[in-house]
Design a protein that fits this description.
mainly alpha, 18 helices, 13 strands, three-stranded antiparallel beta sheet
């Protein structure tokens, strides 16, 4: 997904329609394919074929987080509701199936159940008939391409599998036209059917859940939910992100402030690595901008200082994967490749730039520049393998905007001003709130320049600086 986050920024910077088309085609194909769970929502791990029909059925928390970010940003960039709907469905899945009672998020769901990969997710035509009744089988077969003999070939045997993976071959607009329905009626009918299929499927043996709570992956999900709260003006997402952040900071942080990596069965342990710090800081920055609670920004700065103290390579720059007092290794690895998930260095670079702009701390921006220069040789050889770093670089090159809104947080004009920013695709900006009803020293302690930025005549006032 970070490939798509980069392409959206490249489109905005260059007004490059090809880049936007690449994003839209990919997001549409992902949502239509078998890689997406059309009954229970969320994305499977990856596709095993070029049509994106047959997935590896495992579901990972970090894939949900990064994919949700891509769909939310595409919604902001294009205004197309299909992208917003998919992002919301991903959040529905995570909040329903992957959220611990304590507030953190579980790691994954297995691909197999009853010893067979995908058994929980695939359907025979007869099972669909049992779930829906005879009248709706023909309709749903046309929509989700269900066939009596199965709709995919078993790659091991080369034979028809006799089971079906639900997928779309056309957009809902095209399907509505084919079925002589309005899009509204088609969506409404499909939702009724989806709920019936979901209820039937819930009776099956579920795949095993990996119920570890990992700091790094939770950081990504906190960031995604906070972005979703902003893009969709949805308080439920902000509340879920807050619950997870509060749980981690209360349970997976030692008395000296250091993070721990994992929690399970009431026990937190394992010293945190770079990804834990970088991803959680990202989540806290996004969460501050979603709810404007200064304790999240303050904690992000504290963790950043700890990260730089323990992981920074003083000789050539960049951040090591392990802390300076961790296990003795022949080499302290420094990861920059943005693979299945972004690298800690790439995310840390963007965090440092954001926090530097939010607090007018040029030292943090200088550290970000040193990350860029430390890895520039590797990145030049293969830029497409470092697209999250390219996201940070796009922010660093600018133009970048620092926005302070001064006004009562619950006042309608303040809310309208904030919403005007959130409904647009403005990736290269940071946002601070100087609330009129509280002592402004809370934010001024972290960002001194906000002391002089107050509301004018009691009205919501925006201060916008560039670079």
């Amino acid at each position: 997904p970070h490939n798509l986050l980069f392409l959206l920024r490249y489109w905005k910077r260059r007004d490059n329609k090809v880049a936007l088309n690449m994003v839209e085609k990919t997001l549409q194909a992902m949502q239509r394919g078998g890689i997406y769970d059309h009954v229970g929502f969320g994305f499977h791990r990856y596709s095993t074929d070029s049509q994106w029909l047959v997935p590896h059925f495992e579901k990972m928390l970090y894939d949900q987080a990064m994919s949700a970010m891509a769909y939310a940003e595409a919604y902001q960039a294009t205004g197309k509701e299909d992208y917003g709907k998919t992002a919301r469905e991903i959040f529905t899945y995570v909040l329903r199936d992957m959220t611990a009672p304590e507030g953190g998020f579980y790691s994954a769901e297995d691909a197999d159940s009853e010893g067979e990969e995908g058994k929980f997710y695939i359907w025979t035509q007869e099972e669909v008939r049992q779930a829906l009744g005879n009248e709706e089988v023909d309709f749903i077969a046309k929509v989700f391409n269900i066939e009596k003999d199965g709709n995919f070939v078993d790659r091991a045997t080369g034979r028809r599998s006799s089971v079906n993976i639900l997928h779309l071959r056309k957009s809902l607009g095209e399907l509505a036209s084919d079925l002589n329905l309005s899009q509204h009626d088609l969506r409404r009918h499909l939702e009724v059917i989806r709920q019936k299929l979901f209820a039937y499927r819930e009776k099956r043996v579920h795949p095993m859940k990996d119920d570890k709570i990992l700091t790094d992956w939770n950081g990504l999900m906190i960031a995604a939910l906070a972005k979703g709260a902003q893009a969709f003006d949805e308080s439920e997402y902000a509340e879920a992100a807050q619950c997870a952040a509060d749980f981690i900071l209360a349970t997976m942080r030692k008395p000296d402030g250091r993070l721990l990596h994992r929690y399970r069965d009431g026990q937190a342990g394992i010293e945190a690595n770079l990804d834990d710090y970088a991803f959680l800081i990202w989540g806290l920055i996004e969460l501050y901008e979603a709810v404007f609670d200064t304790r999240y920004l303050k904690t992000a700065l504290e963790l950043t200082n700890d990260m730089l103290r323990r992981f920074w390579d003083k000789d050539v720059g960049g951040l090591c994967l392990t802390p300076d007092d961790g296990e003795t290794l022949l080499v302290r690895e420094k990861e920059i490749y943005d693979g299945a998930i972004p690298s800690g260095n790439s995310v840390a670079m963007l965090n440092l730039l954001c926090l530097g702009r939010m607090t007018a701390n040029s030292d943090l921006e200088e550290k970000a520049a040193r990350i860029s220069s430390a890895f520039s040789g590797s990145v030049k050889q293969s830029p497409s393998a470092h697209t999250q770093l390219m996201v940070a670089l796009d922010f660093g090159i600018g133009p970048c905007y620092e926005v302070v809104i001064a006004g009562k947080s619950q006042a309608e004009d303040t809310k309208a001003m904030i919403k005007a920013l959130r409904t647009r695709f403005l990736p290269n900006k940071v946002l601070l709130l100087n609330p009129g009803e509280r002592d402004p020293s809370e934010i001024a302690q972290l960002a001194k320049f906000t002391q002089s930025q107050s509301s004018i005549d009691g009205r919501a006032t925006a201060y916008v600086c560039m670079n």
